[in-house]
Amino acid sequence: MGESDTTHASGKLSIIGTPIGNMGDITFRALWNLKECNVIYAEDTRVTLKLLNHYGLRKKVLRLDAAMEAKKAEEIVGRLEDGEHVAYVSDAGTPGISDPGARLVAHVREARPEAIIDAIPGASALTAALSIAGVSADKFLFLGFLPHKKGRHTALALIHDTNVPVVLYESPHRILKLLSELAAHNISRVVLARELTKMHEEVLSGEPLELASELKEKGAVRGEFVVIIDSSR
Ligand code: SAM
């Protein structure tokens, strides 16, 4: 693993990618860091404790969600000053990708530039979806969750005008609304990647309204979605 010591005079912050559904999708290096760190900060301690229990790891886990990121960042700087090794994980996938983490890292870089900040890469719904969508992703635009109100129309117009694939995240209770809005903006080819790495993983592609009917036919719309708008064809 190449990392035998747990303390560093300047302190170390590891930003760790975790599974997006399948517990197997975690790297040896991530597990090693979760085991060796002094403390784990997590978006939701219950979610992270399930992961730790699955791998037989016992560690102090403290909450750091989006609302408390600035305040907890200061606490983490204090730990780094004491030479601690701190790990940060979000609920699923890569911290900072539509998840907390970026403000923490920015704060640590500024307040404690001598601290080591290690990327421990892992799963992300973004890359998992693109890897099986059949859409060329040499270039793409990732917009994450569209704004709910202000700026939504502008974002939809931008998607229409963009000539590289656009990737969005969406929740099950908003997916039908998004598909009807994409149709209203004359977007004709969409790929949906649902429940990636889980038992009911599937990829659906077609026109937005066809996909909406397909989802409705299956009954309650469940699962988490990555939406890819493929304007390249
Ligand atoms: N940080 C995460 C990552 O790296 O993918 C994303 C976190 S964001 C709060 C959650 C969104 O990611 C979900 O609403 C969904 O759009 C997408 N997502 C997460 N897990 C997924 C999965 N297993 N299948 C499909 N989409 C998923």
Number of helices: 8
Query: Which secondary-structure class do the elements indicate?
Result: alpha/beta
What ligands can be seen in this structure? S-adenosylmethionine
Strand content: 15-25%
CATH architecture of the largest domain: 3-Layer(aba) Sandwich
Shape: elongated
Give the total of beta strands: 10
Helix content: 25-40%
As for the number of domains, it is: 2
CATH superfamily of the largest domain: Tetrapyrrole methylase, N-terminal domain
Strand order of the largest sheet: 3-2-4-1-5
The name of the CATH topology of the largest domain is Cobalt-precorrin-4 Transmethylase, domain 1
Low-confidence stretches: none
- CATH class membership of the largest domain: Alpha Beta
Cα-to-Cα separation, first versus last residue? 44 Å
Report the radius of gyration as a whole number of Å.
20 Å
Question: Which features would summarize this protein structure in a list?
Answer:
single chain, 233 residues, alpha/beta, Cobalt-precorrin-4 Transmethylase, domain 1, Methyltransferase, Cobalt-precorrin-4 Transmethylase, Domain 2, 2 domains, 5-stranded parallel beta sheet, 5-stranded mixed beta sheet, 8 helices, 10 strands, 20% strand, elongated, binds S-adenosylmethionine
